[in-house]
Amino acid sequence: MSENPLKELPKFGQSVWHDYIRRQEVLSGGLKRRIDEDGLLGVTSNPSIFAKAIAGSNDYDDGITRLANEGLEAAQIYEKLAVEDIQSATDVFRPVYDRTEGRDGFVSLEVSPLLAHDTQRSLEEARHLFSAVNRPNVMIKIPGTQEGLPAIEQALSEGININVTLLFGIERYAEVANVYLRALEKRAAEGKPIDHVASVASVFVSRIDSLLDPQFDAKLQAASPEERKKIESVVGKVAVANTKLIYQKYKEIFKTARFEALAQKGARVQRPLWGSTSTKNPKYNDVLYVEELIGPDTVNTLPTATMDAFRDHGKARATIEEGLDEARQVIAQLAGLGINLGAVTQQLEDQGVEAFARDYKKLLASIEEKKSLGTQAARR
C-alpha cells in the first residue's frame, strides 16, 4: 500500500487539521481513525459546520429535547451542544496535544458571529467559552475584524488560546501577527508564563479566486488580444499568490529580534493556517489549495472532500516558497486590470461575517424547530 499523502505533509512542516465536526464522527471512533490513519492533528469548527451537523442529522435531537426541558433557549442549547462536542473532540486529541508538546491537537470553537464587530462582548464570550470547555487544547475563534483585534489581544494576554479567523489580506494578517506579539509581551511583562499560549492566524484562500473569477470572465469578454493575455496570466492564481506573500510576511515578523526575545521565554510562533482550501472552480485542480501551499510552520484545515481527494491523488512537497517572483507579479498586475486587492479582501471579510451570521441564525431556527417537534412528541 502506497504512503498516504496526508501523512507526508508533516515531513514538510505542515499540520493537517479537519474543517469539520459532528457528534457521530466522535462517538463512532471516526475521529480517532483519522488521527491514526491520516495523521490528523486538529479540528476546526464554525457555526456553519454546526448548522449542517445539527440541522442535517438526528444526532442532536435527544440533546435538544433534554436541554429544552431544562428551560434553555435556542442559543443556550446550541452553546451546550457545541461545548459537549468540543470537549469530546479535545479529549480524543489530548494524546496528540501531549505528544506534540502543545503544538497540535487543538479543536476550535467560534464565538457568536453576531459579535464580529463588538469588541467587549467578543472578549467576554471568548473567556466564557474557554472556561466552559475547560481543556488546554481548545482554541477559541474570534474573527480578525478591526473590532476583533483588541479582543484577540486581551484574550491572548489572559492565556486564552485563540484561532484568529476570517483573514484575507496581507495588511490585516500583519496586524494580527503583531497583536499576538503584543499580547505575549504584555503577559511576559506581568511575569506570567507564555510557553503554553497557542494561536493560529486563519487565512481564507479560495474565496479570493471565487470572487475574482467572474470579474475576470467579464473582462475577458471585452478584452483586446493584448489585454486578454494579461488577464489570462492571473486567472486562478491570485489566491495562491496572496497566500504565498502572507507566508513571507509571517517569516519576516517571526524572524525578528522582537520575537526571538519571546521565544527565549518559551513562546511559539503563531502559525498561519490555510482555511477555505476546497476548490470551488471545477476548472482548477481539486487539491490546488493544498499542493501549492505546503511548508514549515503552517496548518491546512481541510474540508472532508478535499481531504479525501488529497489522500487519493495529492502530491506532498515543499511548495510555499516556490514561484515567489511570479506571485509578486500576479499581485502587481491586479491594479492595472482594475482590481483593488485591498477592497476585495475587505469585501470578503464583510461577506464572511454576514454568511456566518446568517448560518448562525438558521442554526438557531433549526434548534427551535427541533425543540417544537420534541415538545409535540412528548405530549402524544
Structural features, described:
This protein has 17 helices and eight strands. The protein is of the alpha/beta class. The chain has a single domain, classed as Aldolase class I (TIM Barrel). The protein has an eight-stranded parallel beta barrel with strand order 1-2-3-4-5-6-7-8, surrounded by eight helices. α9 (170-189) links the parallel β5 (162-167) and β6. The radius of gyration is 21 Å and the shape is globular.
Helix-strand blueprint:
Blueprint: H1 5-8, E1 14-19, H2 23-27, H3 30-38, E2 42-44, H4 47-55, H5 61-69, H6 74-99, E3 106-110, H7 119-133, E4 138-143, H8 148-157, E5 162-167, H9 170-189, E6 199-204, H10 206-221, H11 225-232, H12 238-254, H13 257-263, E7 271-275, H14 288-291, E8 298-302, H15 304-313, H16 324-334, H17 341-379
Parallel strand pairs: 1-2, 1-8, 2-3, 3-4, 4-5, 5-6, 6-7, 7-8
Helix pairs in contact: 4-17, 5-6, 5-17, 6-17, 7-8, 8-9, 9-12, 12-16
Summarize the structure.
With 380 residues, the protein is an alpha/beta fold. The chain has helices spanning 5-8, 23-27, 30-38, 47-55, 61-69, 74-99, 119-133, 148-157, 170-189, 206-221, 225-232, 238-254, 257-263, 288-291, 304-313, 324-334, 341-379, and strands at residues 14-19, 42-44, 106-110, 138-143, 162-167, 199-204, 271-275, 298-302.
